[in-house]
């Protein structure tokens, strides 16, 4: 599974109740997100935005949490990108999450970003990746019920 930067920010900075099922599943090891170096670097930049200064975020500690909870996925060779036709995200900054979900074989991409959410049908058709909002992902987790930490998503 892939979490975009906004979801990581909600997990690391805010106490948004919509991401609490994700937090619980992460801590239990029920879900195992993947991240790529460029996605992690974007998260570092986002956490340093001036509007977050009032939260006094320890960016290194936040990224250490991401490193503990997510597996680092290598970017595929350019030839792999050239060989496929992935849906293009209107927000080019979010395209990396679409690519990560596809190349990592992720079951889902969790996002609140409108440009990413608009790709739902096309990404499912091209890659088999479900694009979900945090509440939809939380509901999906609830239907799984007894998902085992030995078989994380």
UniProtKB/TrEMBL annotation:
It comes from the Bacteria. It holds the Pfam family PIN_3. Residues 2-115 form the PIN domain. CDD domains: PIN_VapC-like. InterPro entries: PIN-like_dom_sf, PIN_dom, PIN_toxin-like. PANTHER family: SSL7007 PROTEIN. This is Predicted nucleic acid-binding protein containing PIN domain.
